[in-house]
Specification:
Among the domains are: 221 residues, D-Maltodextrin-Binding Protein, domain 2 (3-Layer(aba) Sandwich); 172 residues, Periplasmic binding protein-like II (D-Maltodextrin-Binding Protein, domain 2, 3-Layer(aba) Sandwich), CATH 3.40.190.10. It is 35% helix and 11% strand. The strands form 5 sheets. A 6-stranded mixed beta sheet has the order 2-1-3-11-4-14. A 3-stranded antiparallel beta sheet has the order 8-5-9. Strand 1, helix 2 and strand 2 form a beta-alpha-beta unit.
């Protein structure tokens, strides 16, 4: 017992001696610790540095410490360019936008850029060779199976599993507007499944709509703000033709309309004909409706055929896939669909200096019509990026994508490098430069930002819907866009948000859809110019249902019945 007491006293004395030698008011020095120092991470990830809900979804935006990567490592990115001839010989990475993005993030990105016509075939080659890049444009959507199979088969990650590394994207989908169910369901395929980073607008947007040659209309006694119905549009176009303003005033597409335009939503259907994929159905009173086979489609085709017979539709419509295919006919265009920024391109290509192109309201079948389907104001745009499950650094790839949704990345994503494609004016407003507005290489201004900043048709980011309109006079087009928001919509016929087919049923639909899509593409469009007379509509519908329509409708109906049970 005495030995133990002596030992404790000795230890106490040693401790007291060390305590007396410590640095303090008397200027002593503190001996260095023998414990290993914590090495600072070369990655500045968001994980653990933001407020989140019970699911781990960020409830606030996150500002990255830049650069967030200090390892000088390289990721790879497979994407597309619609104007590859404008990329310099030194390659895309030599351009100002990717250089500035590298500087801000610290990530070296090696880009594999394909052309539009080679996207799907090149993707199939990469899948077959098991040679995915770290980031893949439209990856999960291009996969031959379902998006869940694309993840389950080990090709792409479920981004939800990496939500600690993408707070800005999660916030934008779930918390920017908690009433925005359309955007949430576009991003969250299921509450715990997110297969891609989608390009998202920074607010609900109606990006396209109907436009008229307003100076002609005014001379004919029409006010653009008073034109509301399809009957009025028909009368206006007849007058444009009969009074010699245009030989064929209406420019439609070989897909009827541009994807996303929804000019024909008043016919209670989707006008756009997707020639490469099955279009998801909607429902009326809990009964499945297959697009291009409904009574609304019959009424739409009847109207288009009436306009064709009156000589109002451009005879070369079957060869036009975008408004660019009509640029040599701008002087003849009286009624068409485009974006507000697209109006500027048309004016630039019109030889009539007095031409005025202006927007009109969403066209209705009847005055004060309420739209039921097709106009849900989701903020989802077109671009989409999936992350390879076999990537070299998944956390870094996810973070790189998430930066594109952050406050710090917003200006670069939308307008490119400051001082090159944009700068502030004397009032502190963003203004595009001549590199965009009067491109030295001749690239149209509406396409410039897709090359010099965010390519919103292919890649992900948080997008300013007015980003192409920041120049003197551009406020006119921003104002033009406002008229497209003036409509009544209740969404009662939309497919329920978040309701998806099971993997098994989705695969069944994929297997059946090929023949049906081909049949619809070859026959539905033929009603426009009378190649197939309207008297054959019922036979067309019956044959389409026999070519997989009945089986597909039954699968969706069973899913819908269980949802409402």
């Amino acid at each position: 017992m005495k030995k133990r007491i002596a030992l404790f006293l000795a230890l106490a004395l040693v401790i007291a001696l060390f305590a007396g030698c410590g640095g303090g008011k008397n200027g002593g020095t503190t001996p260095a610790s023998n414990a290993p120092e914590e090495t600072a991470s070369p990655y500045h990830y968001a994980k653990g540095n933001f407020q989140a809900d019970s699911r781990g979804i960020a409830t606030e935006k996150y500002d990255y410490q830049l650069p967030f990567c200090e390892t000088d490592e390289t990721l790879t990115f497979w994407t597309v360019c619609w104007n590859p001839e404008y990329i310099p010989e030194e390659g895309y990475t030599s351009m100002e936008f990717p250089q500035e993005l590298k500087k801000m993030t610290g990530v070296n990105m090696e880009y594999t850029i394909v052309t539009q016509d080679a996207m799907k075939s090149n993707f199939a080659t990469l899948v077959a060779a098991d040679d995915m890049r770290d980031l893949m444009m439209h990856g999960a959507s291009y996969y031959s199976g379902t998006v869940k199979e694309a993840v389950d088969d080990g090709y792409f990650i479920n981004i939800y599993d990496y939500r600690d590394y993408c707070p800005n994207y999660m916030y934008e989908a779930a918390y920017r507007d908690t009433n925005d169910k359309a955007t949430y369901s576009s991003v969250f395929y299921e509450d715990d499944f997110v297969y891609s980073f989608w390009d998202l607008y920074d607010g609900p947007v109606v990006n396209m709509g109907p436009v008229i040659r307003a100076d002609w209309a005014e001379k004919l006694g029409y006010n653009r703000e008073s034109i509301r119905t399809w009957d009025e549009v028909y009368e206006m176009m007849v007058a444009m033709k009969s009074q010699g303003f245009s030989t064929a005033p209406w420019q439609i597409m070989n897909t009827i309309e541009i994807s996303g335009a929804q000019v024909f939503a008043s016919f209670d259907t989707v006008g756009y004909v997707n020639t490469g994929a099955f279009q998801a159905p909607f429902q009326i009173d809990k009964k499945v409706q297959l697009v291009h086979l409904t009574e609304g489609d019959h009424e739409l085709m009847t109207y288009l055929n009436k306009c064709w017979n009156a000589g109002l539709i451009d005879p070369d419509w079957a060869g036009a896939s975008s408004n660019n295919d009509y640029l040599d006919k701008v002087d003849n265009m009286g009624f068409f669909a485009t974006t507000a920024s697209g109006i500027m391109t048309l004016e630039q290509n019109c030889t009539d200096a007095d031409a005025v192109f202006a927007t009109i309201h969403k066209v209705q079948r009847s005055a004060d019509q309420t739209f039921h389907v097709g106009l849900a104001a989701s903020r989802k745009s077109y671009g989409e990026t999936s992350i390879s499950a076999k990537g070299s650094n998944i956390e870094l790839a996810v973070t790189w994508c998430d930066f594109r949704f952050s406050k710090g990345g917003y200006n670069l994503m939308n307008y490119g490098k400051q001082g090159y494609t944009w700068d502030y004016d004397e009032k502190g407003n963003i203004q595009l430069t001549d590199q965009v507005l009067n491109n030295p290489q001749g690239l149209a201004s509406t396409w410039c930002l897709l090359l010099y900043a965010l390519n919103n048709l292919a890649d992900c980011g948080l997008e300013d819907s007015n980003r192409k309109l920041y120049y003197p006079g551009g406020e006119k087009y921003i104002e033009y866009n406002e008229i497209w928001y003036d409509y009544k919509y209740d969404g009662t016929w939309e497919w329920p948000f978040g309701l998806n087919l099971s993997d098994e049923n989705q695969q069944k639909v994929n297997d059946l859809a090929g023949d049906l899509v081909t049949f619809i593409t070859e026959n539905y469009l033929a009603f426009v110019d009378g190649s197939k007379p309207m008297s054959e509509w019922d036979a067309y519908v019956s044959e389409a249902m026999a070519n997989g329509g009945d089986a597909i409708a039954a699968i969706y109906q069973d899913t819908l019945d269980k949802y409402y049970a």
